[in-house]
TrEMBL record:
Residues 34-233 form the Fumarylacetoacetase-like C-terminal domain. Pfam families: FAA_hydrolase. The lineage of its organism: Bacteria, Pseudomonadati, Pseudomonadota, Alphaproteobacteria, Hyphomicrobiales. The keyword Metal-binding applies. This is Fumarylacetoacetate hydrolase family protein. SUPFAM superfamilies: FAH. Keywords: Hydrolase, Metal-binding. GO terms for molecular function: hydrolase activity. The keyword Transcription regulation does not apply. InterPro entries: Fumarylacetoacetase-like_C (IPR011234), Fumarylacetoacetase_C_sf (IPR036663).
C-alpha cells in the first residue's frame, strides 16, 4: 500500500498561480514576487528632485498586478495623474540571500520589458507625509509585462537603448548603461534585505521622460535586443 499525500481542503478557493509567457516557447515563467528599484537612472532621479546616486531602495508590486502583452491596462481609480515608466525587468531562476555581485548573473533566467504604472499624485502625497508608496505603485494592473527572453538567447544586456512613446510621440529615452546600479549590483543589494526565490521579478528603474497617461493612450516601450511592449490604457 502506497501512502499518498492528503490534498488540503481550503476554506476559500485558492487563486491560480500567476505566470507569464516565455518568448518562442509554450513554457511559462511562474511569478513569485515583484521587486522594483526606485530612481535608478541619474536623469530620472534629477527630474524627481533627488541626487544622482544614492543607495538603492526598493518597493514591491503584487504578482497579480501583471498585465500580459496584448491586453489593455485599465485606468485605475483614485488618481488624476497616471504616469508611465518603461523598465528592464529581470527574471530570476535561482534565489538566495547575500548573493555576491560577481555571482549574481548566474541567478538570472531572463529579461523582459515592463511598464511600471504609477499614480503620481498619490505618490506625491505619500512622499509629503512620509508614508509608504503601496497605493501609488502596487495597484491592480500596474505592471504590464512582455514575454521573458531567456538569458541563453539574449545574454545579459548591460547596454542598449531604452525608449517609450505615447501615441507615437517620444517620451522616454535612455540606455541600460545609464543605470546607477547595474543588474548584478541590484541583485546583490536586494538579496541582503530579502531571501530571493526562483520566480522573482525585478523592475530595474526607468530613465527620464516619465509623463501623464490618459484613457485611450497607447504606450510602446522598447529595449534594444529585447523588442517592444505595447500597452493600451483603457
Amino acid at each position: 500500500m502506497t501512502d499518498r499525500p492528503i490534498e488540503p481542503s481550503y476554506v476559500v478557493p485558492p487563486l491560480p498561480r500567476v505566470s507569464v509567457a516565455v518568448r518562442d516557447s509554450t513554457d511559462r515563467f511562474p511569478v513569485h514576487r515583484i521587486y522594483c528599484v526606485g530612481r535608478n537612472y541619474a536623469a530620472h532621479a534629477r527630474e524627481m528632485g533627488h541626487d544622482d546616486r544614492e543607495p538603492p531602495f526598493f518597493f514591491q508590486k503584487n504578482p497579480d498586478d501583471i498585465v500580459e502583452a496584448g491586453k489593455p491596462a485599465p485606468y485605475p481609480p483614485l488618481t488624476a495623474d497616471l504616469h508611465h515608466e518603461v523598465e528592464l525587468v529581470v527574471a530570476l531562476a535561482h534565489g538566495g540571500s547575500d548573493i555576491a555581485a560577481e555571482n549574481a548573473l548566474s541567478h538570472v533566467y531572463g529579461y523582459a520589458i515592463g511598464l511600471d504604472l504609477t499614480r503620481r499624485d498619490v505618490q506625491a502625497e505619500a512622499k509629503k507625509g512620509g508614508r509608504p508608496w503601496a497605493t501609488a505603485k502596487g495597484f491592480a494592473n500596474s505592471a504590464p509585462l512582455g514575454a521573458i527572453l531567456p538569458a541563453t538567447t539574449v545574454g545579459h544586456p548591460a547596454a542598449g537603448k531604452l525608449t517609450a512613446t505615447v501615441n507615437g510621440d517620444p517620451r522616454q529615452e535612455g540606455d541600460l548603461s545609464d543605470m546607477i546600479w547595474s543588474v548584478p549590483e541590484i541583485i546583490a543589494h536586494l538579496s541582503r534585505w530579502f531571501v530571493l526565490a526562483p520566480g522573482d521579478l525585478i523592475f530595474t528603474g526607468t530613465p527620464a521622460g516619465v509623463g501623464e497617461l490618459k484613457r485611450g493612450d497607447v504606450v510602446v516601450g522598447a529595449i534594444e535586443g529585447l523588442g517592444q511592449l505595447e500597452v493600451r490604457i483603457d
